[in-house]
Design goal:
The chain has about 625 residues and is α+β, with helices and mostly antiparallel strands. It contains 15 helices and 34 strands. The strands form 13 sheets. Strands 5-6-7-8-10-9 form a 6-stranded antiparallel beta sheet, with no helix packed on it. Strand 1 and strand 2 form a beta hairpin. Helix 8 packs antiparallel against helix 10. The longest helix has about 45 residues.
């Protein structure tokens, strides 16, 4: 391609030349039409062949009655400003005030002005010295005109013409810049005004005289009553004060109206109508889901103060807020304004509006009046399971084995509910320890449904773009793109493994290489390494060998590569509940009693029994 500012054939030697597209003598046709309805079309623009200075300045008047003037078959021109080098326009079927860069059509002549619904233009993509060097193509043909440059954020663009100070008109026409009679303008002089070519001068009024613009001469000053002067002064001051107050009021009202229109625009763009229909069509959702105003959430978060930030997730930023009814909430807003992010937001509201479960984060409502959509849900004070397992050890936040089993069972119950008990099946698609929050009682709360998918009852899987977190991502889903409930089972198996070995899902080996925790676990099991050498010291101290073997067996089944060989979330939940029940009974039993009971999951060497046999013995357990 030719460099910016050059036109021609880049495949020829010296084929790229400077812009020579402007012709100041292009108006060859007599009596060119210069009006389209109520819009004036000055030269160098034109609506007929032989009436415009270059091809890009051709305008099409498609309807004189409605003043429809087209540029580039897309922009409807409303004003052409010669002095400012500005074109104002509207775009059909789009909101008034929207901006579409002209650079898609002509990057050299038209550039974005920075204002709404307007752009600047230049006559040629040349510097002023380059343009003046070619007298036959120089656009500033009028006497008393001069060349001016236009720059953009990307660098130099080109030049255009203006009339000199004291002159006005069209600098692109011979004799187009005419002298301005400054004396016709009010309060130009404190005396007699004399117009000159390109300027003016004043004659001072004699003592006790003033200039009379009606008589165009001096008039003597008459003595005025002092009281009248005071009255006039007070009246003037009161008038100025009244106008100032009215101006402030009208300005504030104008800004409020603009703000309301902007919020309505954001509401439409953020799929607000779709969300309202969804909430109104679901009786359960309408009872508990509220559409918040932006003022409520700004007040709740101290105008989204940075000190209120709780954390940054994969789908947005979370703030802590206090509503007017003193409820403490977490307010989440997306980081990026993209169609995909907005759809994830609507998806999360759609899912949470239909879910009521003690181990799933509770939705309070949402706000669509901001550029970035907001979601309001219950504040979970004790952070995430990930922070307890892998946070700063100095904080003394060790998680006991009993709590680990309870939290795992609660999270498994929530996922089981999503898969099989909710009104519409839900595949979470991003199960991980950082998305399992702990409330004031350290009860597990599954959160972050931005990547989840609603699934019809008659479908076993859905085909989606692969989403998730490395270390937790189901390999089968990664390679096939088919999401099913067993994908969540794999991710939960990694969480269960974190509870067992207290290592992060992506760990660094002794050689310094990165490795998935699940791959590490399966490799150690394959090499017959004793399970006691893999689990965390705290788990080894608190859990029995039978419990460790049971959980290890459950992990092994959850992270199998083939999804059809993994248990369901219901089976996983039942296994964990059975293990908790057995542990509770064991703790209550007398030290001298050794009640033999068949464990749900046993490991003999490296052969793992199937869950089907074990659940036959747990079918009658109370839940």
């Amino acid at each position: 391609m030719c460099n910016p500012g050059y036109l021609g054939n880049p495949y020829l030697l010296d084929g790229c030349s400077r812009d020579r597209g402007y012709n100041p003598e292009a108006q060859q046709k007599a009596n060119c039409s210069r009006v389209c309805g109520n819009i004036t079309v000055p030269f160098p623009f034109g609506m007929e062949e032989g009436c415009f200075a270059r091809e890009q300045f051709y305008l099409n008047c498609t309807n004189v009655t409605t003043s429809t003037l087209q540029l580039a078959d897309y922009y409807l021109v409303t004003v052409i400003d010669i002095d400012e080098g500005l074109i104002r326009y509207t775009i059909p079927d789009e909101d008034e005030g929207s901006v579409s860069p002209m650079s898609e059509h002509d990057p050299g002549i038209f550039v974005n002005s920075g204002e709404s619904a307007s752009f600047n233009w230049v006559v040629a993509n040349l510097t002023c010295p380059e343009a003046q060097a070619n007298s036959s193509g120089y656009a500033c043909v009028s006497t008393n005109s001069y060349c001016t440059s236009l720059n953009s954020t990307d660098g130099y663009v080109g030049y255009r013409c203006n009339c000199s100070d004291g002159f006005q008109g069209n600098p692109y026409l011979h004799g187009g810049c005419e002298d301005i009679d400054e004396c016709r303008e009010p309060v130009r002089c404190h005396g007699m005004c004399h117009n000159t070519v390109g300027g003016f001068n004043c004659t001072k009024c004699p003592h006790k005289t003033v200039y009379d613009p009606i008589r165009l001469g001096f008039s003597s000053v008459k003595p005025q009553n002092a009281l009248l002067g005071v009255i006039v002064g007070l009246s003037s001051g009161f008038t100025v004060l009244l106008l100032t107050v009215c101006g402030v009021y009208l300005t504030r009202r104008w800004k409020r109206n603009i703000q309301k229109r902007q919020r309505r625009m954001y509401f439409r763009r953020n799929q607000g109508l779709l969300l309202e229909q969804l909430i109104s069509s679901d009786e359960n959702a309408s009872d508990k889901t509220k559409i918040f105003s932006v003022e409520e959430l700004e007040k709740a978060t101290n105008n989204f103060d940075s000190t209120r930030i709780l954390g940054r997730g994969g789908h947005g930023m979370v703030y802590k807020g206090i509503l007017s009814d003193q409820r403490v909430v977490a307010i989440k807003r997306s980081k990026i304004i993209e169609e995909g992010e907005i759809n994830q937001f609507i998806n999360e509201v759609a899912i949470l509006s239909q879910i009521n479960h003690r181990n799933i984060v509770k939705l309070f409502g949402c706000c669509l009046e901001t550029e970035v959509p907001l979601l309001v849900y219950d504040f979970i004070p004790n952070g995430s399971l990930y922070e307890f397992l892998h946070g700063d050890s100095s904080k003394d936040m060790d998680l006991s084995w009993d709590d680990s089993l309870r939290i795992a069972a609660e999270a498994a119950g929530a996922l089981c509910y999503l898969h099989s008990a909710a009104s519409v099946s839900v595949f979470h698609r991003d199960v991980k320890s950082s998305n399992i929050l702990l409330d004031s009682n350290y009860t597990a709360k599954v959160s972050d449904f931005g990547a989840s998918r609603l699934v019809p009852i008659d479908q076993t899987h859905v085909v989606t773009n692969v989403q998730g977190t490395f270390g937790y991502l189901d390999p089968e889903y990664y390679y096939t793109g088919q999401l099913n409930e067993k994908s969540d089972v794999y991710s939960f198996g990694v969480v269960l493994l974190e509870l067992l070995v207290r290592k992060e899902p992506i760990l660094t080996s002794e050689s310094g290489t990165k490795q998935n925790l699940s791959n590490y676990f399966l490799w150690e099991m394959k090499n017959n390494r004793p399970i006691r050498e893999i689990v965390a010291p705290q788990v080894l101290e608190e859990a029995s060998e039978e419990e460790i073997n049971c959980v290890a067996s459950l992990v092994e089944m959850c992270v199998r590569l083939q999804g059809d060989q993994r248990p369901t979330m219901k089976q996983v939940e039942m296994a964990l509940q059975f293990l908790r029940t057995k542990r509770a009974e064991s703790n209550q039993a007398n030290a001298g009693k050794n009640e033999e009971r068949q464990p749900l999951l046993m490991k003999s060497g490296q052969n793992f029994y199937s869950l089907e046999q074990e659940f036959l013995s747990t079918a009658g357990l109370s839940r």
